[in-house]
Amino acid sequence: MKIEAIQTYILRSPLDKPFYSSQARFTDRNSLLVRICTDDGIVGWGEGGQYGPPEPVACCINDVLAPRLINTPADTPNRTFEELYAFSRDFGQKGTYIEALSAIDIALWDIMGKSLGRPVHALLGGAFRNQVKAYGTGCYYPDFFADTPKMLAALESEAQQLKESGLRAVKIKIGLLPIEIDGQRVDLVRQIFGSDFPLMIDANHAYNATSATRMGRRVESNEILWFEEPVTPEDHAGYQQVRRSLNIPIAGGECEFTRYGFRDLIEDCVDIVQLDLCCAGGFTEWQKISALASIFSKPVLPHVWGSGIAVAAALQAIATAPPCPHTAYPVALQNEPMIEFDRTPNPIRDDLLQQPFRLENGYLAVPAGPGLGVEIDEAVLQRLTVSH
Ligand code: CA
User: Fold this and answer.
1) What separation in Å is there between the alpha carbon of 272 and the centre of ligand 1?
2) Is 121 one of the catalytic residues?
3) Tally of CA atoms within 13 A in the half-sphere of 356 that contains its CB
4) With pLDDT > 70 as the criterion, what percentage of the chain qualifies?
């Protein structure tokens, strides 16, 4: 079984209401998908990158990697990853190249599963669960974030909706505003959710270590399950300082790449490892990063912010994660994994699959069909594609 054709798709969908994280104003959602066809007619799908511009990833696949892959085996994803990584090591250890490799890797595992009639989680050694509890990601900032009363009123309304949507845990954004105002945001959401509802905060690396520590102390009494990306991904000393200073678990990893990048992060910086399968190296690197994290009994809870392909890939991977550490009765977010379920508007996530992911009693089902276990709606693909 050989690779016969590789095609990229840049999908883009404008947003009616732009929103902010601490880093950026989002006016649209985009995804980079790759479609790989084999000489015996099997089609595999992958996704590369999370929210950055998809064009460089498409260029990397089309102009550099695809010519090297045509007529090579389609059923050796580990070997293909190693050879492409070795090829691009001197100029592409992080970022665009690894996002391109991730997309290709996910598509090759999809192909291998389809060729054998088995889901990816079976190829990875078998599933521990057929459904995964989901936590919602939401409560970003509206365009009127500087109008504090109006911003807090909108936050209250959104938090209420999230609580009533059937989610069992929620992660909200901090980091854009002064610490005291963001502290009020966390207080308000905790008040709406009540004391027992799992609540996490995500700064998207908005702080240095001292500001992150101030923020953490400001909200520590709110029973925060984790503080995500408190400092910049390069600032490992800052991660260590924040982690020592706070009584809140520290999470991070969505801006890190490959097992080489994750080594120090896992050992010293975070309590919860958040690789993104579409960025860090697909299923091939997921296995290696998960093995590293298991040595330290640190859970790997993937970052997911992409299309339905990204959600499917994360579910296939999480299905295979053992309870960390083992107990006779695993508890979500304690030693049982959860999946990130982005609740911000994204038609590429909601409409692209023939059978979109839906919450059932707070859980998402792990697709049981061959490969990723999902099918693309070709009409939606055509509608959302802005460039091949
Ligand atoms: Ca995040």
Assistant:
1) 12
2) no
3) 12
4) 100
> Which residues 6+ apart lie within 8 Å of 175 measured at CB?
21, 22, 182, 202, 203, 204, 205, 206, 207, 215
Active site residue: 121, 236, 303, 388, which one? 303
Confidence of residue 4 (pLDDT cuts 50, 70, 90): very high
Pairing label, strands 224-228, 199-202: parallel
Which bin fits 140, alpha (ψ -120 to 50), beta or left (φ > 0)?
beta
The answer to whether 266 and 296 have CB atoms below 8 angstroms apart is: yes
Reported as a single tens digit per residue, the pLDDT across 302-343 is: 999 999 999 999 999 999 999 999 999 999 889 999 999 999
Domains parsed from the chain with CATH numbers: 3-117+378-387 (3.30.390.10), 122-365 (3.20.20.120)
CB 182 within 8 A of CB 176: yes
Query: How far is CA 266 from each of CA 56, 85, 188, 275, rounded to the nearest angstrom?
Result: 28, 21, 32, 11
- Over residues 150-154, the mean pLDDT reads 98
pLDDT computed for residue 196 by the predictor: 92
Tell whether the model's pLDDT for residue 214 goes beyond 90: yes
Token pair of 36, please? Answer: 């790989």
**Which of 320-343 are b and which e, b meaning 16 or more Cβ less than 10 Å from the residue's Cβ?**
bbebbeeeeebebbebbbbbbbbb
Neighbours of ion ligand 1 (CB under 5 A): 202
Which tokens go with 358?
A: 């839906």
What's the 202 CA to ligand 1 centre distance in angstroms?
6
CA dihedral sign of residues 308, 130, 257, 246: positive
- Å from CA of 339 to ligand 1 middle: 13
How do strand 272-273 and strand 250-252 relate by DSSP bridges?
parallel
3-state DSSP of 153-184: HHHHHHHHHHHHCCCCCEEEECCCCCHHHHHH
Element housing 260 (H / E):
helix 258-264
Ligand 1 geometric centre to CA of 358 (Å): 21
Closest C-alpha to 222, from 185, 175, 179: 185
* Ligand 1 midpoint to CA 81 (Å): 26
